[in-house]
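Tokens in:
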């Protein structure tokens, strides 16, 4: 619980989690939003979050056989250079609108770990997966994200043979923040209602 509680506090203290009316990149409306780019203004919190991401990666043995890290621009890329230095692995950055790497390179021998800030439906990561495996012929079987929005993304990627390792699930996050008195019960209920509704739509 230590890592999840620390990550939850960082998300709260930096204002990463907010409530309102938003549209996600996948076109879905949501009443809560996670903006990890705010960590650019909080280097100490960024350092601590990456430390705990590294701990999970080590504990799960995720880095085994990995030769390169790939981050997805824009928000997910904030973690990649620091993780690259920590694990002494080269990295690349993928621009989803250009549908290609804009930093770094890959080849047929590379075994890639994708890093992103969160996963929702998994469509963005699936698109990156297909482009990298089809164009560069690199192998991708692992993804690390900070938050799983619990919208079916992990299940979508599992069908491709890709394992997703979230640091924390969104319901775990709001449970912790509610227990700490940081968010109201109404805000926790917003998240639970969205997770329940997304699950209902997938059936």
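Residues out:
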């Amino acid at each position: 619980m230590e890592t999840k509680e620390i990550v939850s506090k960082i998300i709260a203290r930096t204002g990463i989690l907010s409530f309102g009316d938003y549209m996600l990149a996948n076109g879905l409306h949501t009443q809560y939003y996670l903006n990890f780019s705010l960590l650019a203004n909080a280097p100490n919190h960024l350092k601590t979050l990456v430390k705990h991401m590294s701990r999970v990666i080590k504990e799960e043995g995720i880095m085994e056989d990995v030769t390169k890290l790939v981050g997805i621009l824009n928000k997910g890329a904030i973690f990649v250079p620091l993780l690259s230095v920590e694990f002494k692995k080269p990295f690349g950055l993928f621009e989803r609108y250009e549908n290609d790497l804009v930093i770094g390179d890959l080849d047929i021998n590379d075994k890639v770990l994708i890093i992103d800030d969160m996963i929702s439906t998994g469509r963005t990561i699936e698109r990156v997966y297909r482009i990298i495996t089809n164009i560069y012929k690199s192998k991708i079987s692992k993804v690390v994200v900070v938050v799983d929005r619990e919208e079916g993304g992990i299940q979508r990627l599992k069908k491709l043979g890709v394992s997703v390792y979230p640091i924390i699930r969104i319901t775990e996050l709001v449970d912790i923040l509610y227990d700490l008195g940081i968010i109201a019960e109404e805000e926790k209920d917003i998240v639970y209602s969205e997770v329940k509704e997304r699950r209902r739509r997938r059936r």
